[in-house]
Amino acid sequence: MSSILASFKLDGKTALVTGAARGLGQGMALALAEAGADIVAVDILPADDTKKQVEALGRKCATVVGNLGDRAAIPVVIAEAKKFSAHLDILVNCAGIIRREDFDKFTAKDWDDVMGINIDAVFFLSQQFVREALARQGTAKIINIASMLSFQGGIRVPSYTASKSAVQGLTRLIASEMGGKGINCNAIAPGYMATDNTAPLRADADRSASILARIPAGRWGTPDDLKGAVVFLASPASDYVNGYTVAVDGGWLAR
């Protein structure tokens, strides 16, 4: 008799995780490794620490340094990943940046830089990943990292809000087109997490207090809080979940 827990195992799978050198990306890469997957850790920064931790879990890990804001880097990333594994089963699009400025002062560069990483790279990397999955006629999972600002407007982050709203829409589009071909695409929308992106908010005592006052859990999230969601969405346990954005927010959206 099979156990439901077996459907969460990722033994024999390979996961490509972007933004995996630190923060949420690293936390999700480690979660997938704990569940049995080998990891391709992609980041603009060296991901040596992630590699060390993945290997300590008994899994294999390759690191790829690349600037995903450069579209020419996308096929290179896939080619390097294929040297490590003949099959890429899971893609986690976590790499992302944020720029803060008043709407009327926001620059074209800050718009372009954020959109290039947060949505252009998600589209082009997912497209390459899907082509590989279709060519080998295998099943695959795409997990995009959305945001609370996929649901809300926010303030002083126009390109981030636009990009994360687009991530949610693209997630639905991929699910709609690829669901019948063995490819699931879902998203995780982290709440307010203690990462580099939120450092300015946490450093502002008044803003931090106002944010915490709205979170029913009463605390900032951590990379560990995403482990269960990413393993679920990467595993056979979620085979009938497609096009959905899972909020891991401590209850923020419920208020």
Question: Which key terms come to mind for this protein?
Answer:
7 strands, Rossmann fold, alpha/beta, 255 residues
What can be said about this structure in brief?
With 255 residues, the protein is an alpha/beta fold.
Protein architecture, described:
With 255 residues, the chain is an alpha/beta fold. It has one domain: Rossmann fold. Helix content is 42%, strand content 15%. It contains 8 helices and 7 strands. The chain has helices at residues 23-34, 48-56, 73-84, 108-136, 158-178, 199-203, 205-214, 227-234; strands at 14-18, 38-43, 61-65, 90-93, 140-145, 183-190, 245-248. The chain has a 7-stranded parallel β-sheet with strand order 3-2-1-4-5-6-7, sandwiched between helices. α1 links the parallel β1 and β2. α1 (23-34) crosses α8 and α4 (108-136) runs parallel beside α5 (158-178). The chain starts with 13 loop residues before the first strand and ends in a 7-residue tail after the last strand.
Average of the residue pLDDT scores: 96
In the CATH hierarchy, what is the superfamily? NAD(P)-binding Rossmann-like Domain
The CA-CA distance between the termini, in Å, is 42 Å
Based on the structure given, which CATH architecture is correct?
Answer: 3-Layer(aba) Sandwich
List the helices and strands and how they pair.
Elements: E1 14-18, H1 23-34, E2 38-43, H2 48-56, E3 61-65, H3 73-84, E4 90-93, H4 108-136, E5 140-145, H5 158-178, E6 183-190, H6 199-203, H7 205-214, H8 227-234, E7 245-248
Parallel strand pairs: 1-2, 1-4, 2-3, 4-5, 5-6, 6-7
Helix pairs in contact: 1-8, 4-5
